[in-house]
Automatic annotation (TrEMBL):
Highest taxon of source: Bacteria
InterPro entries, sorted: Cell_Envelope_Assoc, DUF218
All residue ranges annotated as the DUF218 domain in the record: 27-147
Entry protein name: YdcF family protein
């Protein structure tokens, strides 16, 4: 048990170091699958022309690329990634990409109803890798997600930290 506590206590230290080393976001990460998130991201990105944009499992490229192009964002700035199957894997599938580019601070964009769960997952998964985030929400009319889903994905995030496995197959049971 003390081993687990020590490992988890490293996360706040890594977060603090990342805040010092990268006080400003270096890229944008949008949790996809909703056109409104991609529209918000494209509009936001016009105010931050030096930041690369990552969209994890968003709408298909036939929809997403025209949105970014309509805002004058070149294709080489936008990374459309379709490996994730859920919110936990939105983060785990991109960790190596962020680390290889030495990204330590991200803008995290998702819907308002989804932000609590996304922040919990991001704190654990990104934080364990020394990456921090600044959350931005897209307004929504959906009710906030249940505590059960949040706790389930906290557990899955911890599972990934300790085993490298996300437990994505658990989604079909819950």
């Amino acid at each position: 048990m003390s081993f687990l506590v020590v490992l988890i206590s490293v996360i706040p230290v890594r977060i603090a170091i990342a805040k010092i080393q990268a006080p400003q976001p270096q890229a944008i990460l949008t949790l996809g699958s909703w056109l409104d998130r991609e529209m918000f991201t494209a509009q936001f990105a016009t105010k931050h022309p030096n930041l690369e944009i990552w969209v994890s499992s968003g709408t298909g490229p036939e929809f997403a690329q025209p949105i970014f192009r309509a805002f004058g964002i070149p294709d080489n700035r936008v990374h459309l990634d379709y490996r994730a199957v859920d919110t936990v894997t939105n983060f785990t599938t991109l960790i190596d990409d962020f680390k290889s580019r030495k990204i330590q601070h991200l803008y995290l964009i998702t819907s308002e109803y989804h932000i609590t769960r996304a922040k919990a997952i991001a704190t654990l998964i990104l934080g364990s890798q020394g990456i921090i985030f600044t959350p931005l929400t897209v307004p929504s009319h959906e009710p906030s997600e249940s505590w059960f889903r949040i706790l389930r994905d906290i557990f899955r995030s911890l599972l990934w930290i300790f085993t490298g496995r996300t437990g994505a197959s658990l989604n079909s049971y819950f």
